[in-house]
Design goal:
The complex is a heterodimer of chains A (about 150) and B (about 120). Chain A is mostly helical and about 150 residues long. Chain A has 4 helices and no strands. The relative contact order of chain A is 0.07. Chain B contains 3 helices and 2 strands, in the order αββαα. Chains A and B meet through helix 2, helix 3 and helix 4 of A and helix 1, helix 2 and helix 3 of B.
Chain lengths: ~150, ~120
Amino acid sequence: MKDPAALVSLLVAVVAAAIIFFLPFGHREKLELAAGYALLILIFFYGMVVLSKMMTGAIDLKLLLGESGGGASMSRFQLLIFTFVIGLSFFFVVTSNTEAKFPDIPQSVLALLGISATTYGVSKGIQASSGLHSKEAAPGPAPTPQPPKAPLNP
Amino acid sequence: MPTIAQLARWEGSVLLGAFCVTLCWKLLTAKIPLHELLQGDRADGSSYVSSGRIQLLIVTLFASVSYLMKVIHDPRVIPEIPAGLLAALGGSQATYLGGKANALLGLFRNTGQNRRTS
């Protein structure tokens, strides 16, 4: 693990789990609490590390919506929007329900994501075909003349 | 001390919110470029403002906003998407892909003609 931020987050999670082990609870409760808090801390810090790298440009998002020929891709843009919308909706629904259960995902939502992802895939296929085709059609670079080989010394 | 459920709720809100804000900020400041988002390609390599892409953008934004409004209105269940909206979306996608495929076919045709004439 080369990233110091990831190491610090792991350390904080371990310390939190260790503190919980000294609290006056039963063994099973302590284990559940320690694992839960440690996981939450880890996920939060890892998320923050990814976020900070996105903000500083260490994770480059310039080509997130880019097509192979340059310019932004409509299918990628749509998939990004739908992913966030469905993700946010799912989070709202989970946090609004008091009972701890995984909510049912309707078939229509799966169909929406499926349509969007299929478009993205087909679009990539078309781009790849056009790229291959233009490579085939374009005349290759003229071969550079090789200098005559020097005769071998007897 | 907050419970695990409370902590998970805060954490999820902060992380998801921060990811959304970061992406919006990058889109608005053109760090994630959106140029040529609405431009389609012709077979000869030139580009034009594509009505199929504009339609797809409008349908996408409309579907997203209406879905989010539904969730905010009743956040207990994940709402269904009306069949009509799915059909509109599928139609828009088909138009968009059709335009792209048409440009590709045109490219094939042009290359074939160039080869025959040369």
